[in-house]
């Protein structure tokens, strides 16, 4: 955690020069009156963002005169990120509100194409297009900016989409998540997510023309989303249906039945313990209009309506409310499942009453 004041006081021109000799984005407040409403709001924001952003402020006459500023806030981009597509500094033109200053900083902080690292990845919001290559501002700033400038050339025309560059070695897990095990060559690999969180891969080799077409198609909603999926099982006749990303809609979303689905991980002990119980449940409800299903959530993309954070996670999906799955929080014994399904099934079960007690099938005898 940062110690000391959240904003450094600059006493003169040399202090400013030293403060701006950095590879990070910096914010400086210039205040003729240190107790102005804008100054107070600036300091409140600096305390809020101190872990993420470098702040400084000054009331030094020499600096205010040099900059021609009396009551202003300026965002400075470091020299290594200067480019011809956006100004190297940006003056705040808004009012004295904390919210407006906060928004000005967060909206403009990363610029047209942000340098996205493991530390700040969470700050980038969808829709987001990321170029993965050997991003290295320490050993190869020139080479890094060579590709970043080409991304910028396109990014400047798409204000509704966020753009970033990331080091491909630091984000191998993301590349894997998009089905890419290894990236050879120097050219960037382009991956994207839309506002819904769906994934897209630019299949063509990187060029400014190919990249521009990809972004246009992404914005127009004309790209086919990428789905990480195991192959659809050749035989799925068991009483517990095996769901993969590619047959999810067919077996779950479009099925005209209620569904109980388990999202599991192959390495998870609790999942292994649950497996025989789930098989038994499938057999017990084989003649009912209910689908019992399971999906390996480590090998398949889970649809965004299902929030899976640990394993196993189970959801009850009523047939008339497929977009509103309900997280199953009940017990994990066979009887617990039967009682839950009997109580919540859209239509009454054939072989169990609403309390989960077995009912005799109606006799054919007169």
Automatic annotation (TrEMBL):
<dbReference type="Pfam" id="PF13848">
    <property type="entry name" value="Thioredoxin_6"/>
</dbReference>
<keyword id="KW-0413">Isomerase</keyword>
<dbReference type="GO" id="GO:0006457">
    <property type="term" value="P:protein folding"/>
</dbReference>
<dbReference type="Pfam" id="PF00085">
    <property type="entry name" value="Thioredoxin"/>
</dbReference>
<protein>
    <recommendedName>
        <fullName>Protein disulfide-isomerase</fullName>
        <ecNumber>5.3.4.1</ecNumber>
    </recommendedName>
</protein>
<dbReference type="InterPro" id="IPR017937">
    <property type="entry name" value="Thioredoxin_CS"/>
</dbReference>
<keyword id="KW-1015">Disulfide bond</keyword>
<dbReference type="InterPro" id="IPR036249">
    <property type="entry name" value="Thioredoxin-like_sf"/>
</dbReference>
<keyword id="KW-0677">Repeat</keyword>
<feature type="domain" description="Thioredoxin">
    <location>
        <begin position="218"/>
        <end position="346"/>
    </location>
</feature>
<dbReference type="GO" id="GO:0003756">
    <property type="term" value="F:protein disulfide isomerase activity"/>
</dbReference>
<dbReference type="GO" id="GO:0034976">
    <property type="term" value="P:response to endoplasmic reticulum stress"/>
</dbReference>
<dbReference type="InterPro" id="IPR013766">
    <property type="entry name" value="Thioredoxin_domain"/>
</dbReference>
<dbReference type="InterPro" id="IPR005792">
    <property type="entry name" value="Prot_disulphide_isomerase"/>
</dbReference>
<keyword id="KW-0256">Endoplasmic reticulum</keyword>
<keyword id="KW-0676">Redox-active center</keyword>
<keyword id="KW-0732">Signal</keyword>
<dbReference type="GO" id="GO:0005788">
    <property type="term" value="C:endoplasmic reticulum lumen"/>
</dbReference>
<comment type="similarity">
    <text>Belongs to the protein disulfide isomerase family.</text>
</comment>
<dbReference type="InterPro" id="IPR005788">
    <property type="entry name" value="PDI_thioredoxin-like_dom"/>
</dbReference>
């Amino acid at each position: 955690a940062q110690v000391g004041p959240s904003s450094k006081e600059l006493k003169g021109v040399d202090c400013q020069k030293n403060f701006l000799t950095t590879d990070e984005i910096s914010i400086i407040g210039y205040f003729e009156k240190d107790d102005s409403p804008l100054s107070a709001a600036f300091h409140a924001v600096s305390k809020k963002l101190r872990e993420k952003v470098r702040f400084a402020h000054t009331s030094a006459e020499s600096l205010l005169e040099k900059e021609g500023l009396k009551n202003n806030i300026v965002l400075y981009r470091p020299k290594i990120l200067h480019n011809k597509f956006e100004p190297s500094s940006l003056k705040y033109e808004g009012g004295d509100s904390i919210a407006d200053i906060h928004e000005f900083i967060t909206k403009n902080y990363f610029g047209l194409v942000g340098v996205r690292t493991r530390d700040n990845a969470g700050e980038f919001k969808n829709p987001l297009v990321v170029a993965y290559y050997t991003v290295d501002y320490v050993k190869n700033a020139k080479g890094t900016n060579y590709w970043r400038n080409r991304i910028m050339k396109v990014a400047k025309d798409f204000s509704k989409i966020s753009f970033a560059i990331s080091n491909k070695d630091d984000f191998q897990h993301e590349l894997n998540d998009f089905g890419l095990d290894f990236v050879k060559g120097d050219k960037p690999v382009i991956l994207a997510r839309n506002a819904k969180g769906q994934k897209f891969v630019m299949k063509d080799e990187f060029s400014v023309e190919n990249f521009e077409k990809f972004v246009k198609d992404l914005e127009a909603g004309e790209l086919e989303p990428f789905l990480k999926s195991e192959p659809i099982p050749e035989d799925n006749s068991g009483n517990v249906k095996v769901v993969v990303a590619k047959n999810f809609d067919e077996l779950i979303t479009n099925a005209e039945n209620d569904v109980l689905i388990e999202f599991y991980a192959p390495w998870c002990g609790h999942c292994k313990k649950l497996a025989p119980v789930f098989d038994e449940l499938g057999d017990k409800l084989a003649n009912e209009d209910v689908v019992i299903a399971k999906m390996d959530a480590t090998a398949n993309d889970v649809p965004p309506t299902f929030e899976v954070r640990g394993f196993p996670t189970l959801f009850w999906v009523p047939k008339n409310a497929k977009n509103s799955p309900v997280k199953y929080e009940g017990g994990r014994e066979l009887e617990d499942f039967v009682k839950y399904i009997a109580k919540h099934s859209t239509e009454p079960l054939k072989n169990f009453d609403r309390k989960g007690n077995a009912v005799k099938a109606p006799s054919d005898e007169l």
